[in-house]
Amino acid sequence: MAESTRLVDRVAARIDDALDTRETVLAAISPDLAPLVRQSRELLAGGKRFRALFCYWGWQSVAAIAHDADGLAELEGADLERELPAVVSVAAALELFHAAALVHDDIMDRSDLRRGRLSAHRAFERLHRDAEWDGDAATFGTSTALLLGDLLLGWSDELFEEGLALLADREAAQAARAEFFRMRTEVTVGQYLDVLEEDSWRSRPDNEALPRAHRVIVYKSAKYSVEAPLAIGGALAGGSLAQLAALREFGLPLGVAFQLRDDMLGVFGDPEVTGKPSGDDLREGKRTVLVGLARQKMPPTAVRVLDELLGDPGLDDAQVRMLQNTMRDSGAADQVERIIAHNVRVAREALADAPLSGSARAELAQLADRVTRRDS
After folding, report:
1. Contact (Cβ atoms closer than 8 angstroms) between residue 239 and residue 63
2. Most buried residue among 32, 190, 281, 339 by CB atoms closer than 10 A?
3. DSSP track, 303-362
4. Residue 59, domain member (yes or no)
5. Cα four-point dihedral sign 296, 297, 301, 307
6. Is 243 inside any structural domain?
7. Is residue 61 included in any domain, yes or no?
8. In CATH, what number is assigned to the domain containing residue 96?
9. How far is CA 57 from the centre of its chain?
10. Which of 56, 101, 102, 114 is nearest to 83 (CA)?
């Protein structure tokens, strides 16, 4: 835990340093660009840094072992310190990528809040309104947030490349870059599949709802939240095919469990803890595994009510509570909890005989609990 805390502190310092550098560049262009940096700092100041942690422990799981005649032997910390600046930069780049994804996601979901504060497009909308500028404040907010997301994506690329430039092993750098490129493609198309599902579900057979919801989970979240950061970290250390496969076998089911927990919080979470209104996913019309299971278990009349209300941004608190109770009573919420537990168990089993550092495997097992037992 102490090592993870130090890593998080180093990543935060690297992010601050990167934003300081970019702020200087933007200030030389125009003082009007200050809100872009200010909003970037606000977005990147919080969060649990899970992607950075998975990247680090993916790297550590490979870098901390050496193959010799006697098998696997732990290396000393000093031998790892030389490559750490590269890993910290790459881990920080993943956090910038995540911030960019959140900005774009909040626009698509029409979310007002992020971590208890105004989402980026709403913050820029308020800036416009407070300044009493011409034009439509909401349009300005959305347009500016889109640009901020794009800017953060570009800065993420820059920071990633700065990290790779510090690696002595150029083959490892190339492998990590390939993993990063794959992650960007997968999360983008996963986001599209999510948007598609919200609008096209009526035209699909009911028996496709659950597999389609699962596919969204895998590509929108599971891979980029857990599996890809692990694989990127393992690749940075020059991981073998067997080691990268082991990290994926652990990461994918854990990523699924991670997103299922997120889906549960999106419906049942405490707004004082999550920083978002209770039942936000219900107002946004998310066609999650939870919803798919509930529709399977509820009587036809209840399904019709659910389908009519889901996705209505004007749902009041009483309607949200009614839908929450209906989903609980159907048994869908309990089944999702069982699916989460199953995926965590599968992930842990993948670690048991993996050709990875023993200390890293222990930390990854602890992380598995943290990401799936959270309340925000």
Report:
1. no
2. 281
3. HHHHHHHTT-TT--HHHHHHHHHHHHHHTHHHHHHHHHHHHHHHHHHHHHT-SS-HHHHH
4. no
5. negative
6. yes
7. no
8. 1.10.600.10
9. 16
10. 56
Range of the domain at 125: 1-46+84-166
> Taking the alpha carbons of 328, 334, 337, 343 in that order, is the dihedral positive or negative?
negative
What is the distance of C-alpha 300 from the center of its chain?
35
- Please give the Cα distance from 93 to 11 (Å, whole number): 9
Mean pLDDT, rounded, for 241-251: 98
Rounded Cα gap, residues 243 and 241, in angstroms:
5
DSSP code, position 299: -
Examine residue 71 and state whether it is found in any structural domain, yes or no.
no
Residue with tokens 């300044």: 131
- Condensed to tens digits (0 to 9), the pLDDT of residues 268-320 reads 999 988 888 889 899 999 999 999 999 999 999 999 999 999 999 999 999 99
* Burial of residue 237 (number of CB atoms within 10 Å: 0-12, 13-18, 19+): buried
Q: What gap in Å lies between CA 48 and CA 50, rounded to an integer?
A: 5
186 and 113 within one domain: no
Instruction: Name which of 180, 186, 145 is nearest 43 in CA terms.
Output: 145
Per-residue H/E/C for 161-226: HHHHHCCCCHHHHHHHHHHHHHHHHHHHHHHHHHHHHHHHHHHCCHHHHHHHHHHHHHHHHHHHHH
Tally of CB atoms within 10 A around 268: 16
Nearest alpha carbon to residue 238 among 73, 72, 61: 61
How much of the chain is helix, strand and coil, in % rounded to 5?
A: 80, 5, 15
Mean pLDDT estimate for the chain: 94
Question: Nearest CA to 296 among 232, 205, 363?
Answer: 205
Our count of domains for the chain comes to: 2
Q: Is 354 exposed, middle or buried (0-12, 13-18, 19+ CB in 10 A)?
A: buried
Q: pLDDT tens digits for 12-60?
A: 999 999 999 999 999 999 999 999 999 999 999 988 999 999 999 999 9
Nearest to 230 by CA among 214, 258, 250: 250
Q: What is the mean pLDDT of residues 337-356?
A: 97
Strand partners, 73: 66
| pLDDT per position as a tens digit, 193-239 | 999 999 999 999 999 999 999 999 999 999 999 999 999 999 999 99
